[in-house]
């Protein structure tokens, strides 16, 4: 029972460890507007005394040796809509990164923003067997967590122990080795739609790649965009992508909540295209070159040339003021922020010690977004770029690449999850987790 429960996740972790021992692994961020790939080379920490053939898994122990991104195809709302088109986009990104790195990559860790993530807070308690907390005690307390019935259509992707309590002393991140009698845990279970997950993994197989891990895009974006103080005191990361807007809340450096809104920058582009009767490609260009969210008196006089609906520049020439363009874009952005505010209020964000909101993603770069977000969300907001990592090209340092950089940080400094411990299979909690992870053992 125990082997069946964890065989898939542990197999992926074994492949990740094998790739890290060889020193090279790739991360792949599949989005609605682009597919980004980073090839990471892990180098041993000379001052740690670790063997040269085994890299130390800590943040900063790697450098980027290959990076590429391509326009996403066959992806809608962060989910695979056309298998062949998505496969072509993934192959293009992987091949571009491999060419830059001048080597072949077999193992990849994937992050994607779709799947309608749902968060559950679990807790469990057990008695410490031999005075000092050991690995098996962690497994027992995780098995004691009562997993809720989240439906057959959703499967667990993350099971993160976010807080341990030993004899009433709370706030422990790793109680192993400490003396106590009663051990309790708070665990964050994140589920996503099983069909969306199945399609992504199948697409990776079609690309002849070995899957070494799957992570939620909202988790990766938060790791990259939030600084240490924000993760410690409590902050929310709002990743405004093209098809979805992901929301993740961190406190004490742990993700405690995640959700998404199925709207993003592509919907703003669609509004521009419909309102001005132009193609989506031209609408995207107008949004990028002239778009904004806060109009001034000068914007009434700034005129923008629109392409002719008949394809000829001399016929049916039209112009629109920048203030009119802003008037088209702003309602949709306000609608997205209204949905984000409802999610944050439902999660109890107002009770955290720190309440800063960090905006990231490609659409967060629209001029005026930070000001509008602060007004609608009622809290201090800033536009966050991903943390700088060694070797990252300048073209990949913008907020649109927070997901890819976050995956790299996740690989270099992974957090322990439920399936990293030996959970006794004879416990009721373990059987419930078995049902929750049924998809992994039936469809791998």
From TrEMBL:
It is found in: Cell membrane. Residues 25-225 form the SHS2 domain. Pfam families: FtsA, SHS2_FTSA. GO terms for cellular component: cell division site; cytoplasmic side of plasma membrane. It is a peripheral membrane protein. It comes from the Bacteria. InterPro entries: ATPase_NBD, Cell_div_FtsA, FtsA/MreB, SHS2_FtsA. Keywords: Cell cycle, Cell division, Cell membrane, Membrane. GO terms for biological process: FtsZ-dependent cytokinesis. The keyword Cell division applies. The keyword Cell cycle applies. PANTHER family: CELL DIVISION PROTEIN FTSA, CELL DIVISION PROTEIN FTSA-RELATED. Self-interacts. Interacts with FtsZ. Belongs to the FtsA/MreB family. Cell division protein that is involved in the assembly of the Z ring. May serve as a membrane anchor for the Z ring. This is Cell division protein FtsA.
